[in-house]
Design brief:
heterodimer, A: mainly alpha, 5 domains, five-stranded mixed β-sheet, two-stranded antiparallel sheet, 68% helix, B: alpha/beta, Rossmann fold, 46% helix, 20% strand, globular
């Protein structure tokens, strides 16, 4: 077959594919179909099956038998886990507008550009061998097809670049990748065209491979049974179906399974197709069974083809990686061979295009943008069209990545089988697993842990896989591979830390992941998260939970000039897109755009997410931070913040007040209740005391009157004595009753007062006059010192006199006979008239003084000489004085005497 | 031999009445107007019976009764409470302090005399 024909066919195929993609994007209905089909989504994931699967599986099966299987077993095992992991990742990425695995990791760990950059570097360095593998597969299959069978076993090793097929293939792929991938700047927007193309390629590679399988099984041989029975007779082939040193060990098998589990989730292109291009989270449900089914179908014929190739071609004469193509060719079926070539071409191109686009987005968003912004090489507010320059940058990056893959292919790739090259990539990508999975489910996973783990894992990977490869190809010295670095046996790259016996991939995976995970966990536990990391950790770990609906709110307040934000969005998104998005935002939040002056936190967060879709989360953060005013707060804003804080504080205070009020009311109620109980008790006590006080005179009256009645012979003297006691006791009862009623009236406010202008001096003098007989009876000395001027009061004359009589008679009562002395004085102490009545009687103890104005106070001392009072006199006096807005006090010392003072405001 | 009775009450009018009643009934009487005085008088006078009020200054009647009961010297002394405290609780406290009988005020002259007689005959 002529080279020109093959090249033309390939180009035509790519053009058709691009045409389909283009048409799909232009045609609304078709675009809708691609967007809304879970089958398209599931088939697009089949980009996992690259030329590695298409050619490499057969090659792998031909050398290691079932050793090819783990690469498909891993994803099959992973698929059910998508339900938890992938769905969560999709939710987060949609919400946060994350566009790549680097963006995802960087966003999770505090939107730090550094970790995104590291992930990008690992991804690019890790994926380049993988892309070179595709170049190699296309180039080899092209050679096989064009050189028509005669080229078997021919490796285009030292071909000059300009006559190297692979170089031109690389150029074509650059062109198409640019066509497919860089027509839009924004990457969160679904690229239906790309998805459509990948889906078509998935279908074509499946049909082509199945065609080859059917041809080999039923046309070259007579069905599966024929192939297997013939193969079973050859001893070397029989061994392919067991675990052994020659084929594959159990450990390697297990490691490869785990590796591919990680790969299907974390490979940048798988992340791109399954997360970024996902239109509905629910599509994952379909992909969970459809994708493993696809893997199963495409692998059905791997072993038959491998066995056929081994049986048809003399050992070593044909590279097993090309069996799929070389068998139809050897049988003279050129049409099928052509179709098979197109299938393989499909598998390779879909991988190269999607992987390169994914890596480009990662590089431009996680490395280039933050770098340019940091270095102020571009400025968000610059005049030139950022969108255009962004696209130019991306095109350049695409070219660079594919060219690097070509270079890798030229230097290293020709020496190794497809699968062993691919596994190097898988191991590199697996380094993301701790940071991604830990970040999804472990809130304490932090930036320091993630970046250290990643870096360490990456270094171990580099030391054990690609660097020895380079050394073996003579790019660098290879002395150290045998003896270990610096001759330390422990540092032998293929037997790190003295452990040998595992395959190179297994031991590289084992050590890199072990060290990565250990550092990730340990450092996360030992160090603290920054504030933004805590927020992000919450968003990521709690994604999908109900309570998380509003947690995207930033924890601090930011505000920015709305115009500034808008200008920036115009720069990166374009005017049309910006207006459209802002309109949507306004509608959703029920606000009018025209009325917005300052962008609040929510709008800033929204803008940041929009930007993040174009330039990645780390870069978006830098851009946003450059325009918002968190650092240089104006005085007004500070006041605003304080105001807001104040409001919150005052709101809290109000709450506190309310609760304090409630507490106070409760307290008052409790007090009232206590008071009521006390009053009740007082009332009881009062009644008990009154009845007791009544009982005593009644007892005397009853007993004495009975004696008088019974004893007729009672002498005159005794009779008179008894009668006088009876009269006295009766008076006592009468006084008591009237006092009780008096007090009761005053306490309940029922007492009738007749206030008038009263001369205090006169009342005092009159009271003393009334008590003259008692004074002279006890032979007391009474000194009266009254101010010359009259003092007038507004008072109830009779009641005030009652007080004076009470106080004076008390004084008289407690004064000793003969040497008793009472001093009465009246003076003005503005605004009060101050009356003092001082006696040299028995005095009142300090303790008793507290209760002296209470009702029925029982004083030990007072009781000694049974007073004739009711025990209510002072209580009543106090009430009366209080009614006059005055005060009554006592000062006393036991056995020295007492001073009662009365203060009443004068007029 | 005449029985000796000590009358203890802080109300002179009541002391007057009881003293008269008991003297008329041929008892030898003595009076005290508070608890402390009652204890002193009891030691000097060595009464056979004591008519004792409860609410008094210096020392209340219950304490007086308790003190007397502690002393074997007054083992045979009869104590008759005569008080205005009429509740069951008070009554119980009275008997608990060692009283032989508990009468409440206002009392009946004949009842008092009868109780005194009964107690002294025991």
């Amino acid at each position: 077959m002529s080279a020109a024909a093959v090249i033309l066919l390939s180009l035509a195929y790519l053009l058709v594919l691009f045409g389909a993609a283009f048409w799909c994007e232009r045609n609304a209905r078709l675009s809708e179909l691609v967007r809304n089909s879970p089958y398209v989504y599931a088939l697009s994931l089949a980009a996992y099956c690259t030329a590695w699967t298409y050619y490499g599986s057969v090659g792998r099966a031909a050398t290691t038998g079932i050793g090819f299987l783990p690469i498909y077993l891993g994803p099959t095992l992973m698929a059910p886990l998508w339900y938890i992991i992938l769905k969560k990742i999709i939710l987060i990425c949609k919400e946060q507008r994350l566009t790549s695995i680097a963006d995802f990791i960087s966003s999770r760990y505090g939107k730090r550009a550094s970790i995104g950059a590291l992930v990008t570097i690992i991804a690019i360095l890790g994926i380049i061998p993988y892309i070179s593998l595709q170049l190699k597969a296309i180039a080899t299959s092209f050679e096989v097809l064009v050189k028509n069978f005669s080229a078997f076993g021919f490796y285009p090793e030292n071909t000059p670049i300009l006559s190297d097929t692979a170089f031109y293939i690389a150029c074509i792929l650059i062109l198409f990748t640019i066509l497919f991938g860089t027509r839009h700047a924004e990457t969160t927007e679904q690229n239906e065209g790309l998805v459509a193309a990948v889906t078509i390629e998935s279908v074509i590679k499946l049909i082509a491979f199945l065609s080859a399988g059917i041809f080999v099984t039923w046309f070259v041989f007579n069905g599966f049974a024929d192939i297997f029975s013939k193969a079973y007779q050859i001893e070397s082939l029989r061994k392919l179906f067991t675990f052994s040193e020659q084929t594959i060990t159990g450990t390697d098998w297990l490691v490869l399974t785990v590796l591919s589990m990680f790969a299907v989730l974390l490979l940048p292109r798988q992340f791109h197709l399954s997360v970024v291009e996902n239109t509905k989270v629910a599509y994952v449900d379909k992909a969970i069974w459809l994708f493993p089914l696809y893997l199963f179908i495409i692998n059905i014929f791997v072993i038959p083809i491998a066995l056929s190739g081994l049986m048809l071609f003399p050992s070593g004469s044909v590279n097993p990686d090309t069996f799929v193509l070389s068998i139809p060719l050897s049988q003279g079926n050129h049409l099928l061979a052509m179709f098979v070539f197109i299938g393989g071409f499909s598998a390779a191109t879909s991988m190269v295009i999607v992987a390169t686009i994914a890596l480009t987005i990662m590089f431009s968003n996680s490395i280039l943008m933050p770098l340019l912004l940091r270095a102020k090489l571009i400025h968000p507010k610059d005049e030139y069209d950022l969108q255009k320059s962004l696209i130019h940058f991306r095109r350049l990056i695409i070219a660079c990545i594919i060219m690097m893959a070509y270079v890798y292919y030229k230097i290293v790739g020709t020496q190794y089988s497809l699968v062993s090259i691919g596994l190097i990539s898988f191991t590199a990508i697996a380094q993301f697993a701790p940071a991604v999975i830990g970040g999804l489910f472990w809130k304490f996973a932090n930036y320091k842990g993630a970046i250290t783990g990643l870096l360490a894992g990456f270094l171990v990977w580099a030391y054990t896989l690609p660097i020895p490869n380079l050394a073996e190809n003579g790019i660098i010295g290879s002395q150290w591979i045998e003896h270990g670095l610096f001759n330390y046996a422990l540092l032998k790259p293929y037997a790190l830390f003295g452990i040998s016996g595992m395959g190179t991939i297994s031991q590289a995976f084992f050590w890199s992941i072990l060290i990565n995970t250990t550092l990730f966990c340990a450092i996360s536990l030992l160090t603290k998260q920054s504030a933004i990391e805590v927020t992000q950790a919450d968003i990521f770990v709690d994604a999908g939970k109900q309570s998380n609906q509003k947690s995207t709110k930033p924890i601090w307040n930011r505000s920015a000039d709305f115009e500034g934000i808008k200008v920036m969005l115009y720069r990166f998104l374009g005017a049309e897109k910006t207006d459209q998005q802002l309109q949507g935002y306004a509608q959703k939040n029920n606000i009018q755009l025209k009325k917005i002056e300052a962008a609040d936190s929510q709008l800033i967060t929204f803008s940041e997410k929009l930007l993040s879709g174009v330039i990645g989360s780390a870069a978006a953060r830098i851009v946003i931070n450059s325009s918002i005013k968190t650092e240089n707060l104006s005085l007004q804003e500070v006041i605003h913040v304080i105001d807001e804080t104040q409001q919150i504080i005052s709101y809290n205070k109000q709450l506190e007040q309310k609760s304090a009020e409630l507490q106070r009311v409760t307290h008052q109620l409790q007090n009232a209740n206590k008071r009521l109980t006390e009053l009740d008790q007082l009332k009881d006590d009062f009644i008990t005391t009154v009845t007791h006080e009544l009982r005593t005179p009644i007892t005397a009256i009853k007993s004495l009157s009975k004696i008088i009645y019974d004893e007729e012979e009672l002498n005159e003297h005794k009779r008179n004595k008894f009668l006088s006691v009876i009269i006295n006791e009766s008076d006592r009862i009468a006084r008591l009753v009237s006092d009780v009623l008096d007090l009761e009236k005053m306490e309940t406010g029922k007492a009738i007062w007749s206030f008038g202008k009263v001369n205090f001096n006169t009342i005092i003098e009159a009271s003393i006059e009334t008590l003259k007989p008692e004074i002279s009876k006890k032979n007391l000395q009474l000194n009266l010192s009254i101010a010359i001027e009259d003092i007038w009061l507004k008072a109830d004359h009779d009641r005030l006199k009652q007080v004076l009589l009470n106080l004076l008679s008390n004084a008289i009562k407690f004064c000793p006979d003969f040497r008793g002395k009472i001093d009465v004085s009246l003076e003005k102490m503005p605004p009060y008239a101050l009356l003092k009545i001082k006696d040299n009687g028995i005095g009142i103890s300090a303790n008793d003084q507290q209760h002296i104005f209470d009702r029925f106070t029982q004083f030990g001392e007072l009781k000694k000489t049974k007073p004739t009072g009711s025990g209510l006199g002072l209580s009543i006096s106090k009430k009366i004085i209080e009614e006059h807005q005055g005060k009554i006090k006592v000062k006393s010392e036991l056995n020295k005497g007492s001073v009662f003072s009365v203060e009443i405001p004068y007029i | 031999m005449q029985n000796k009775i000590l009358i203890v009450d802080d109300e002179p009018s009541i002391v007057l009445a009881i003293n008269h009643l008991l003297s008329q009934s041929n008892y030898l009487t003595e009076t005290a107007e508070n608890g402390l005085e009652a204890l002193q008088k009891a030691a000097q006078f060595k009464p056979d019976l004591m008519v004792l009020d409860v609410m008094m200054p210096e020392m209340d009647g219950l304490t007086v009764a308790l003190k007397l009961r502690e002393n074997t010297q007054f083992a045979k002394l009869k104590i008759l409470f005569l008080t205005a405290k009429i509740s069951e609780k008070d009554r119980f406290a009275g008997y608990a302090s060692g009283a032989d009988h508990y009468l409440t005020k206002p009392f009946d002259n004949d009842e008092l005399l009868m109780k005194v007689k009964q107690l002294l005959e025991k």
